[in-house]
Amino acid sequence: MAKRVGIIGLGKMGILHAGIVNSLPDSEVTAICEKERFLIRSAKAIIPNVNFYTDHSRMIAKEDLDAIFVTTPIHTHVPLVIDIATTNPSLSIFVEKPLASSKDLANKACRVAKKLTGTHMVGFQKRFSPIFLKMKETLEKGDLGQIMFFKAYSFSSDVLREGSAWRFKPGTGGVLLDLAPHVLDLMLWLFGEPERVHSVTSHIYSSRVEDYVHTILSYKTGFKGHVDICWSMSKFRLPEICIEVFGKDGSLVASDDYLKISKYGSNGAEQVYYKPSLQTSVPFLLAEPEFTKEDEAFLCHNKNTPDFFEAARVNMLIHRILS
Predict the structure, then answer these.
(1) pTM above 0.70, yes or no
(2) Cα separation of 93 and 113, whole Å?
(3) Is residue 266 predicted with pLDDT exceeding 70?
(4) How confident is the model at residue 279 (pLDDT cuts 50, 70, 90)?
(5) What is the pLDDT of residues 71-99, one digit of tens each?
(6) Domains and CATH numbers, the chain
C-alpha cells in the first residue's frame, strides 16, 4: 500500500515536495495543511484527491498518515515537531533545513526524536548531489594526500535591500539561518567537528540581522579553512556553493555544477567531472535531482541521513559562529 504523506506549509518547498512525493512509486500526498486560504483555493484546482486543513493538529488526528513534511518558516519547525510527536509518535517526520532557529530548540527536537518510532530527517539535499558525493569519496580515499587547508563560499543575491519578513528578524532570520546551513552541513559532513571557530559578521543592507559572515574553522588534525557566506552578492542570480581543498599531493574545486581534481608532481593530471556525467536518473525531474534523491531515501528506503541529531550539529555550529 502506498505511503500516505501529509505536508505542512504550501510555500515553494511544500509544493516541490508534494510534486516529488507524487512522482515516487508507492507514495502519495493525501493531506495538506496551510493557513493561507488563497493558497488552498489555488492548490485545490491543481492537486486533486487531497484533503486540505488550516490546523495541523486536526490533520494529524483525522488522517491516517505515514509521514509528514514540515516546510514552514524556521522558527515554527520545533513546535510543529513536538505537536506531531505528541499526537502520533509513529509518524516519520521530514523537516526542511535548518532543523531549528537555535541550538536550544534543536536540542529539544533531538529529545523529542528519541521518543519517535518513525524515522526523522532534515532537508540537507546537497549531501545527495553527485558532485559532493564524489568529492567526499575523493577525500576519504586520500587522493589529495594530507589536507592542508580549504576555502569555501556560499553566495546569493537574495537580499539587496532592507526587508521586514521573518528572515530579517533577530532570532528567526539572518544569513546564517537562511543561506549558510547547506555549506555548514557540508563542512561537518566532509571534515567533522571543528575544534575552534573564529568569526566576524557584518550588516550590508539589513539593520537587525547579519548579511555577511566570515568564519575560520580549525581542526584537531592541524588543518584549517575559512568560509564566506553572503546573501547580498548581486551577480549571483542563483545561490552558489564552492569549496576548494588543498592537499600535499593535489587539490580540488567543487561547485554545484562540477568537480575538478588536480594532482601535483611529474605525473600530475587534471580531471573534471560535470554534474550531468555523474547524475543518476530519477523517476520524475523536478528542480535539482538531489531533492528527489533525498525524498526517495526518506520515503522509499527508510534512510534518514541526515537525521535530527546530525542536523542539530549545524545549529550548534551557527551558535559557535555567533558566540
Answers:
(1) yes
(2) 9
(3) no
(4) confident
(5) 999 999 999 999 999 999 999 999 999 99
(6) 3-124 (3.40.50.720), 126-322 (3.30.360.10)
Q: How far apart are CA 264 and CA 250, in angstroms?
A: 5
Three cell numbers at 212? 555577511
Distance CA 177, CA 179 (A): 6
What nine digits make up the cell of 267?
A: 605525473
pLDDT band at residue 281 using 50, 70 and 90 as cut-offs: confident
